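Researcher: Let's do a round of design. I'm pasting the structure tokens now; please hold your answer until I've finished.
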């Protein structure tokens, strides 16, 4: 596994591989790697000749009161995990390398990025899109791998790739969960034992919302069910909603529905989601909230 810390040297390395016809799969991360990240590395490994992983805690995607400084960083642990999962290249730049003084360009995806996470974390998706666009230009991958846990991020990045004509295929890999359903997240490290127990509320709300939607197709009912599960656990969600998985607008009949939740549990702000496919919804008429 080779490590690169500056833009010029990783560019040289990937160009050398491109010239020999190798395909490149990129897994962008912020480090603090867990099984979810490693599943992305393995997915990239199975379809590409070269697997590159970037580790960069991107200041641009954190709000002023968010956890940029506290975000867990453990380079040697990350390297060990990446080596075991079959990574060829690690790109781990410094903030000054990625954002030179005087930078003034931001990639902004519009309405899709303004809902849910975008509404609760103003500027977040601009930060994500800007860094991912830069990584795409630097590493020039053929495929890029993201987790379904960040479903809105994946949808926003797909929109960006289409709108800006990046010749890159976006792969979205399943959410990895603990045995009790909690989605793996680097931020789970913030949870005390008590918070860790309470954090299962996100998954429990999704399971209950899913059952409710499959029963009668009522999106508003599914949202009430999810909110009830949160209330019983004494956790106030930022949102608990049913939406269209591509547009994040209200769900439409005969299409898949995505349930999305976000909540602060102790010091950690956690998100999760659950997709209910159009096949599962066959025979159920989905009615949008308020419809
Ligand atoms: O999902 C993440 O870890 C980050 O948002 C990403 C895609 C690496 C961009 O910083």
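Researcher: That's everything. Go ahead.
Model: Designed sequence:
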């Amino acid at each position: 596994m080779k490590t690169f810390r500056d833009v010029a040297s990783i560019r040289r390395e990937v160009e050398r591989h491109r010239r020999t016809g190798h395909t490149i799969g990129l897994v962008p991360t912020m480090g603090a790697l867990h099984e979810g990240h490693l599943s992305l590395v393995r997915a990239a490994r199975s379809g590409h000749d070269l697997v590159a992983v970037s580790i960069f805690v991107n200041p641009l995607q954190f709000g002023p009161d968010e956890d940029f400084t506290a975000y867990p960083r453990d380079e040697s642990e990350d390297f060990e995990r990446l080596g075991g999962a079959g990574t060829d290249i690690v790109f781990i730049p410094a903030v000054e390398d990625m954002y030179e003084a005087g930078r003034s360009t931001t990639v902004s995806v519009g309405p899709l990025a303004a809902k849910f996470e975008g509404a609760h974390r103003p500027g977040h998706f601009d930060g994500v899109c800007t860094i991912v666009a830069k990584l795409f230009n630097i590493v020039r991958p053929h495929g890029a791998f993201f987790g379904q846990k960040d479903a809105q991020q994946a949808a926003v990045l797909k929109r960006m790739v289409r709108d800006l004509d990046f010749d890159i295929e976006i792969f979205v890999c399943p959410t990895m969960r603990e045995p009790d359903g909690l989605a793996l997240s680097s931020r789970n490290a913030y949870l005390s034992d008590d918070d860790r127990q309470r954090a299962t509320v996100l998954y429990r709300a999704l399971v209950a919302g899913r059952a409710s939607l499959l029963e009668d197709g009522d999106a508003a009912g599914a949202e009430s069910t999810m909110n009830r599960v949160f209330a019983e656990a004494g956790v106030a969600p930022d949102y608990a909603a049913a939406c269209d998985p591509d547009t994040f607008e209200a769900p439409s009949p005969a299409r898949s529905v995505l349930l999305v939740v976000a909540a602060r549990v102790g010091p950690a702000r956690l998100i999760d989601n659950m997709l209910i496919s159009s096949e599962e919804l066959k025979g159920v008429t989905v009615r949008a909230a308020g419809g």
